[in-house]
Please model this.
Amino acid sequence: MKTFKHLDFKPHSNVKDGVHAILNFDNGTYISVVGGADGLYGNGTSTFEIMSTITDKQNKVEGWLSIKQVTSRMRYLQSLPKIKNTKKRINEFLEDYNALLDKLNNETNFEKLGYFLEYMIDDKYIGSIIIDKPDRKEIGYYGRIDEVAQENITFKNKKTIKKGQAFYTRMYPLCGSKL
Model:
Protein backbone atom coordinates (compact mmCIF):
# COMPACT_ATOMS: atom_id res chain seq x y z
CA MET A 1 0.00 0.00 0.00
CA LYS A 2 1.46 3.35 -1.05
CA THR A 3 1.42 6.25 1.41
CA PHE A 4 2.49 9.91 1.53
CA LYS A 5 6.18 8.92 1.74
CA HIS A 6 5.90 7.43 -1.79
CA LEU A 7 5.07 10.83 -3.30
CA ASP A 8 8.00 12.33 -5.25
CA PHE A 9 7.55 16.12 -5.02
CA LYS A 10 9.02 18.30 -7.76
CA PRO A 11 8.73 22.04 -8.47
CA HIS A 12 5.24 22.83 -9.81
CA SER A 13 5.39 23.45 -13.57
CA ASN A 14 2.76 26.23 -13.54
CA VAL A 15 2.88 27.78 -10.07
CA LYS A 16 5.99 29.60 -8.88
CA ASP A 17 7.24 28.29 -5.50
CA GLY A 18 4.72 25.44 -5.58
CA VAL A 19 5.43 21.72 -5.35
CA HIS A 20 3.63 18.88 -7.14
CA ALA A 21 3.54 15.09 -7.01
CA ILE A 22 1.31 12.68 -8.89
CA LEU A 23 0.93 8.99 -8.29
CA ASN A 24 -0.97 6.49 -10.45
CA PHE A 25 -2.14 3.41 -8.60
CA ASP A 26 -2.30 -0.15 -9.96
CA ASN A 27 -6.10 -0.11 -10.03
CA GLY A 28 -6.18 2.84 -12.48
CA THR A 29 -6.92 5.56 -9.90
CA TYR A 30 -4.59 8.47 -9.26
CA ILE A 31 -3.81 11.27 -6.83
CA SER A 32 -2.25 14.65 -7.58
CA VAL A 33 -0.85 16.55 -4.57
CA VAL A 34 0.22 20.22 -4.61
CA GLY A 35 1.07 22.99 -2.15
CA GLY A 36 3.47 25.70 -1.14
CA ALA A 37 2.40 28.78 -3.10
CA ASP A 38 -0.26 31.48 -3.26
CA GLY A 39 -3.36 30.12 -4.94
CA LEU A 40 -2.83 26.54 -3.75
CA TYR A 41 -4.81 25.15 -0.83
CA GLY A 42 -1.87 23.99 1.28
CA ASN A 43 1.52 25.22 2.45
CA GLY A 44 3.40 22.32 0.80
CA THR A 45 5.03 21.26 4.08
CA SER A 46 2.35 20.15 6.49
CA THR A 47 -0.84 20.84 4.49
CA PHE A 48 -1.69 19.99 0.89
CA GLU A 49 -4.31 20.25 -1.85
CA ILE A 50 -5.31 17.11 -3.72
CA MET A 51 -7.12 16.16 -6.88
CA SER A 52 -7.88 12.51 -7.45
CA THR A 53 -9.99 10.10 -9.43
CA ILE A 54 -12.82 10.94 -7.00
CA THR A 55 -12.50 14.75 -6.81
CA ASP A 56 -11.97 14.98 -10.59
CA LYS A 57 -15.43 13.48 -11.18
CA GLN A 58 -16.87 16.14 -8.85
CA ASN A 59 -14.86 18.87 -10.64
CA LYS A 60 -13.26 20.09 -7.42
CA VAL A 61 -10.21 19.71 -5.17
CA GLU A 62 -9.73 19.08 -1.47
CA GLY A 63 -7.53 21.55 0.35
CA TRP A 64 -5.59 22.05 3.58
CA LEU A 65 -5.23 18.30 4.16
CA SER A 66 -2.63 17.05 6.62
CA ILE A 67 -0.07 14.39 5.65
CA LYS A 68 -2.17 11.85 7.55
CA GLN A 69 -5.32 12.88 5.64
CA VAL A 70 -3.50 12.65 2.27
CA THR A 71 -2.33 9.11 3.18
CA SER A 72 -5.92 8.23 4.15
CA ARG A 73 -7.18 9.42 0.72
CA MET A 74 -4.39 7.43 -0.97
CA ARG A 75 -5.37 4.24 0.89
CA TYR A 76 -9.03 4.74 -0.04
CA LEU A 77 -8.19 5.23 -3.73
CA GLN A 78 -6.10 2.06 -3.76
CA SER A 79 -8.97 0.10 -2.19
CA LEU A 80 -11.33 0.88 -5.09
CA PRO A 81 -12.05 -1.75 -7.79
CA LYS A 82 -9.80 -1.68 -10.85
CA ILE A 83 -10.87 0.79 -13.54
CA LYS A 84 -11.02 -0.93 -16.93
CA ASN A 85 -9.59 0.54 -20.15
CA THR A 86 -8.23 3.62 -18.38
CA LYS A 87 -5.82 4.55 -21.19
CA LYS A 88 -8.51 4.20 -23.84
CA ARG A 89 -10.96 6.33 -21.82
CA ILE A 90 -8.31 9.01 -21.20
CA ASN A 91 -7.38 9.13 -24.89
CA GLU A 92 -11.04 9.41 -25.91
CA PHE A 93 -11.53 12.22 -23.40
CA LEU A 94 -8.44 14.07 -24.67
CA GLU A 95 -9.58 13.73 -28.29
CA ASP A 96 -13.03 15.14 -27.41
CA TYR A 97 -11.50 17.92 -25.31
CA ASN A 98 -9.02 18.96 -28.03
CA ALA A 99 -11.78 18.93 -30.66
CA LEU A 100 -13.90 21.18 -28.43
CA LEU A 101 -10.97 23.58 -27.90
CA ASP A 102 -10.38 23.75 -31.67
CA LYS A 103 -14.05 24.48 -32.25
CA LEU A 104 -14.11 27.21 -29.59
CA ASN A 105 -10.92 28.80 -30.92
CA ASN A 106 -12.39 28.94 -34.42
CA GLU A 107 -15.85 30.15 -33.42
CA THR A 108 -15.32 32.57 -30.55
CA ASN A 109 -13.15 35.56 -31.24
CA PHE A 110 -13.81 38.46 -28.94
CA GLU A 111 -12.90 42.06 -29.47
CA LYS A 112 -10.29 43.25 -26.99
CA LEU A 113 -11.69 46.44 -25.46
CA GLY A 114 -8.63 47.25 -23.39
CA TYR A 115 -7.40 46.09 -20.01
CA PHE A 116 -8.33 46.57 -16.42
CA LEU A 117 -6.05 46.94 -13.42
CA GLU A 118 -7.21 45.26 -10.25
CA TYR A 119 -5.98 47.04 -7.09
CA MET A 120 -5.47 44.87 -4.01
CA ILE A 121 -4.33 45.38 -0.40
CA ASP A 122 -3.51 42.29 1.70
CA ASP A 123 -5.22 40.07 -0.91
CA LYS A 124 -8.45 42.09 -0.65
CA TYR A 125 -9.99 43.75 -3.70
CA ILE A 126 -10.09 47.53 -3.40
CA GLY A 127 -11.08 48.64 -6.89
CA SER A 128 -10.16 48.63 -10.56
CA ILE A 129 -9.57 51.00 -13.45
CA ILE A 130 -9.71 50.51 -17.22
CA ILE A 131 -6.65 51.24 -19.37
CA ASP A 132 -6.27 51.20 -23.18
CA LYS A 133 -2.86 49.56 -23.47
CA PRO A 134 -1.02 47.05 -21.31
CA ASP A 135 1.34 48.52 -18.73
CA ARG A 136 3.30 45.25 -18.21
CA LYS A 137 4.33 42.09 -20.04
CA GLU A 138 2.66 39.52 -17.80
CA ILE A 139 -1.12 39.36 -17.59
CA GLY A 140 -2.95 38.00 -14.54
CA TYR A 141 -1.55 36.50 -11.36
CA TYR A 142 2.12 36.54 -12.43
CA GLY A 143 1.88 40.13 -13.61
CA ARG A 144 1.59 41.44 -10.07
CA ILE A 145 3.30 44.78 -9.41
CA ASP A 146 3.79 45.97 -5.82
CA GLU A 147 3.58 49.74 -5.31
CA VAL A 148 3.16 52.46 -2.71
CA ALA A 149 0.54 55.13 -3.38
CA GLN A 150 2.13 58.49 -4.24
CA GLU A 151 -1.25 60.18 -3.69
CA ASN A 152 -4.75 59.12 -2.63
CA ILE A 153 -6.41 56.81 -5.20
CA THR A 154 -10.22 56.79 -5.07
CA PHE A 155 -12.28 54.30 -7.08
CA LYS A 156 -15.86 54.40 -8.39
CA ASN A 157 -16.89 52.09 -5.55
CA LYS A 158 -15.84 54.90 -3.15
CA LYS A 159 -12.93 52.92 -1.67
CA THR A 160 -9.62 54.77 -1.32
CA ILE A 161 -5.98 53.78 -1.17
CA LYS A 162 -4.31 56.46 0.94
CA LYS A 163 -1.04 58.18 0.11
CA GLY A 164 1.88 56.09 1.42
CA GLN A 165 -0.18 52.87 1.62
CA ALA A 166 1.26 49.70 0.02
CA PHE A 167 -0.86 47.91 -2.59
CA TYR A 168 -0.45 45.74 -5.66
CA THR A 169 -2.04 45.55 -9.07
CA ARG A 170 -2.71 42.82 -11.60
CA MET A 171 -3.75 43.42 -15.20
CA TYR A 172 -6.37 41.43 -17.13
CA PRO A 173 -7.75 41.78 -20.67
CA LEU A 174 -11.18 43.32 -21.03
CA CYS A 175 -13.05 41.51 -23.80
CA GLY A 176 -16.35 42.34 -25.41
CA SER A 177 -18.81 41.42 -28.11
CA LYS A 178 -18.24 38.64 -30.61
CA LEU A 179 -16.68 39.79 -33.90
In short: Residues 77 and 112 are 45 Å apart (CA to CA).
